Inverse folding.
């Protein structure tokens, strides 16, 4: 995201490793003035036609409407790394969905909004775009970072992409698509009262057209307090934005910006309507407070996409481009929408993760030093996803806690490491410690029985000989 945010382990004991899909299956128990100019071009409802759709992986029959959603491509001026990933994404999506009705990109098409970056993006996109597919792109904060005025940056975005405005409304096969545009280059994002009022008008039109159908809304930054990663969402006019959508439980709101992975079950959120994050086509970002960091090792490998299918319900499938496979089960949203029957609510998971009876915690002596103990343990299981481990080190004699930290389960890796190896740093030489490992799921539920083992740091002399 590059928004000024702070970017072979020894497996001798356990030979088996799992790819992400297997891991998930095995862990499953059952403010800009220029907005006026843009809005003026958006007030007319635009009806678009598109090709009929099908999905090679669809188990629910042929969908009435199908479209991919990606975001945060970050095409770069001086490097083709993200361009190559984008081309791979387009190729895989064309195979997975050979007849797309629409194609959505939820902002940050480019890294700096340079002409050359837009040209790279559009050249790749046009070379792979399916005939009849309706293209819909939202502007993101990075698309403003070119030194131009806000108005000129918007004008460049529109000229290069062919979009009619930074916010617009289309109807495809009877379903309504409302695209919003962040109005400047602020990382947090800006959605003015004027644009939100326009959103309310478009929602009313869609609702009156057919209240039983979903309404798809797309905006770059997430609404704070919704999906996984929405701490990076906008605060200005946040409540007005939320309350405008709140009146329509049939809304499915797609946002990008965070780069948070689709694997976490909190990537979808339901309370008054449905929100879902769209991950990234560039590199991974994660929540703070874990020893691996917010941009962990190998983060630039991640590349994911959503595929949305409309039947008598909406199916949202999560695809790992970097692994060319699906991750997790599809999200299912029933219609007509009834918020009292929402499945993906904040309180939906009460089950704690657990370690199986044969789970082991061992000391990796080869990686242990005078000031650190390397531990290796069997990953826990959960009904949804093991997200973190809390590691506690106590003095073996006094039981005083001398070190405590959180670590990711590294669920975002392919393959997911099992066992997982972590190092407890900042310890005293030649000292024995009692180590505890507690498993936490994505909703903060903690296992009842942690793994425990006794370990000892090396002497200074022994550490120097290694």
């Amino acid at each position: 995201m590059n928004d000024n945010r702070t970017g072979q382990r020894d497996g001798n004991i356990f030979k088996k490793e799992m790819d992400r899909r297997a891991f998930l299956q095995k862990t499953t128990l059952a403010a800009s003035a220029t907005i006026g100019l843009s809005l003026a071009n958006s007030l007319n409802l635009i009806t678009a036609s598109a090709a009929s759709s099908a999905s090679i992986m669809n188990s629910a029959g042929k969908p009435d409407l199908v479209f991919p959603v990606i975001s945060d491509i970050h095409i770069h001026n001086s490097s083709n790394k993200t361009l190559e990933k984008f081309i791979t994404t387009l190729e895989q999506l064309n195979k997975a969905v050979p007849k797309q009705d629409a194609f959505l990109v939820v902002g940050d098409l480019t890294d700096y909004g340079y002409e050359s970056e837009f040209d790279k993006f559009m050249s790749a996109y046009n070379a792979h775009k399916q005939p009849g597919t309706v293209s819909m792109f939202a502007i993101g904060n990075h698309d403003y970072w070119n030194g131009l005025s806000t108005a000129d940056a918007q004008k460049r975005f529109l000229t290069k992409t062919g979009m009619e405005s930074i916010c617009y409304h289309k109807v495809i096969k009877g379903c309504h698509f409302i695209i919003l545009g962040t109005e400047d280059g602020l990382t947090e994002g800006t959605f003015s009262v004027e644009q939100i009022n326009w959103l309310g008008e478009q929602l009313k039109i869609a609702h009156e057209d057919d209240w039983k159908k979903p309404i798809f809304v797309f905006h770059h930054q997430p609404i704070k307090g919704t999906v996984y990663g929405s701490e990076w969402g906008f605060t200005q006019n946040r409540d007005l934005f939320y309350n405008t959508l709140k009146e329509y439980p049939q809304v499915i709101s797609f946002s990008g910006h965070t780069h948070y992975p689709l694997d976490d079950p909190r990537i979808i959120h339901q309370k008054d309507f449905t929100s879902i994050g769209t991950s990234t086509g560039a590199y991974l970002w994660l929540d703070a407070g874990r020893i691996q960091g917010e941009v962990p090792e190998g983060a630039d490998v991640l590349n994911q996409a959503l595929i949305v299918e409309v039947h008598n319900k909406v199916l949202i499938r999560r695809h790992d481009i970097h692994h060319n496979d699906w991750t997790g089960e599809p999200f299912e949203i029933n219609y007509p929408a009834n918020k009292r029957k929402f499945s993906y609510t904040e309180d939906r998971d009460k089950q704690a993760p657990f370690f199986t009876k044969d789970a082991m915690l061992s000391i990796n002596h080869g990686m242990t030093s005078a000031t650190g103990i390397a531990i290796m343990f069997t990953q826990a299981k959960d009904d949804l996803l093991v997200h973190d481990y809390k590691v506690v080190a106590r003095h073996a004699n006094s039981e005083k806690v001398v070190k405590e930290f959180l670590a990711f389960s590294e669920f975002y890796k392919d393959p997911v490491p099992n066992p997982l190896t972590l190092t407890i740093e900042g310890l005293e030489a030649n000292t024995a410690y009692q180590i505890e490992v507690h498993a936490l799921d994505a909703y903060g539920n903690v296992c009842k029985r942690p793994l425990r083992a006794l370990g000892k740091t090396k002497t200074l002399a022994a550490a120097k000989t290694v």
Remarks:
- The helical segments are 20-26, 35-40, 81-96, 115-128, 150-161, 193-209, 238-246, 460-465.
- The chain has two domains: 31-341, 361-465.
- The radius of gyration is 24 Å.
- DSSP finds eight helices and 21 strands in the chain.
